[in-house]
Amino acid sequence: MHAAVIVFPGSNCDRDMAVAFEKAGAKVSMVWHKDTSLPSGIDVIGVPGGFSFGDYLRCGAIAANSPICQSVIAHAEKGGYVLGICNGFQVLTETGLLPGVLLRNGGLKYVCKAVDLKVETADSAYTAGYGEGDTITIPIAHHDGNYYADEDTLKKLNDENRVAFRYVKNPNGSLQDIAGILSENRRVLGMMPHPERMADPVHGNTEGRILFNTLVDQLQTA
Question: Which GO terms describe its biological process (predicted)?
Answer without folding.
Answer: 'de novo' IMP biosynthetic process
